[in-house]
From TrEMBL:
SMART domains membership: AAA
Classification via PROSITE patterns: ABC_TRANSPORTER_1, ABC_TRANSPORTER_2
Name the UniProt record assigns to this protein: Macrolide ABC transporter ATP-binding protein
GO molecular function ontology, one term from the record: transmembrane transporter activity
Gene3D superfamilies noted in UniProt: P-loop containing nucleotide triphosphate hydrolases
Keyword ATP-binding: yes
Species of origin: Rhizocola hellebori
Gene Ontology cellular component terms for the protein in this record: plasma membrane
Entry keyword set: ATP-binding, Nucleotide-binding, Transport
SUPFAM superfamilies: P-loop containing nucleoside triphosphate hydrolases
Taxonomic superkingdom: Bacteria
Limits of the ABC transporter domain: 4-222
InterPro entries: AAA+_ATPase, ABC_transporter-like_ATP-bd, ABC_transporter-like_CS, ABC_transpr_LolD-like, MacB-like_ATP-bd, P-loop_NTPase
Length: 223
């Protein structure tokens, strides 16, 4: 059974079709690259699949249950517990330390502060940024910030990780380090990844590639 499945999802903004009858499947532990030029519908697809936005037509299924028809509260809980997200610029909370940023999803889920910070320290160590646990985002390099954001995305041990251009703002060396860390952690936990990228090198790390143009799937090519 697929972990994530989209069945004929479509989304329109005004007179513009952002997505047109998109089908997609993603298995547990699988890594899928979604590629395409700017404006092809990649970000809209991610928003529909993660439950941030409802499609106008079609269905989204996660772990055997319909996702898109759930309440906003239910979808929000799912994103906080079973789905992680890593964005291009990390979007760390600037007033919090690295450790506090990573602990945040656990605290929002009701975990005690001591346990959440202990888990955060473990993940920061796993990604090689433990020495920066007490620093705020403004004191970190771009690569360090993105590793902290990755630790925050993985601290709940999600079944699915959405990564939206996760290396797009980094130089090639820092980007490769973040990508390698993300792949290793996902393989260890059997976390599926849906990775949005315009970079062919990044897509090459994935198991399969799905290409969008003008909101339509052009190809799904096994790597």
């Amino acid at each position: 059974m697929s972990l994530l499945q989209a069945k004929g999802i479509s989304k329109r903004y005004g007179l513009t079709d952002a997505l047109v009858q998109v089908d997609l499947t993603l298995g547990a532990g699988e890594v899928l690259a979604v590629t395409g030029p700017s404006g092809s519908g990649k970000s809209t697809l991610l928003m529909c699949l993660s439950g941030i936005t409802r499609p106008d037509a079609g269905e989204v299924w996660f772990a055997g249950a319909r996702l898109d028809d759930r309440s906003e509260a239910s979808r929000s809980v799912l994103r906080r517990t079973e789905i992680g997200a890593l964005l291009q610029h990390g979007q760390l909370v600037p007033e919090l330390t690295a450790a506090e940023n990573v602990a945040l999803p656990l605290l929002l889920g009701g975990a005690r502060k001591a346990g959440a910070l202990a888990a955060a320290a473990e993940w920061l160590g796993l990604f090689g940024v433990a020495p920066h646990a007490d620093k705020r985002p403004g004191e970190l390099s771009g690569g360090q910030q993105q590793k902290v954001a990755l630790a925050r995305a993985m601290v709940t041990q999600p079944r699915l990780l959405f990564a939206d251009e996760p290396t797009g703002s980094l130089d090639s060396l820092a980007g490769e380090a973040v990508l390698a860390a993300m792949m290793a952690a996902a393989r260890e936990l059997n976390t599926a990844i849906l990775l949005i990228t315009h970079d062919a090198t990044v897509a090459g790390y994935c198991d399969r590639e799905l290409h969008l143009r003008d909101g339509r799937v052009l190809a799904g090519v096994a790597q």
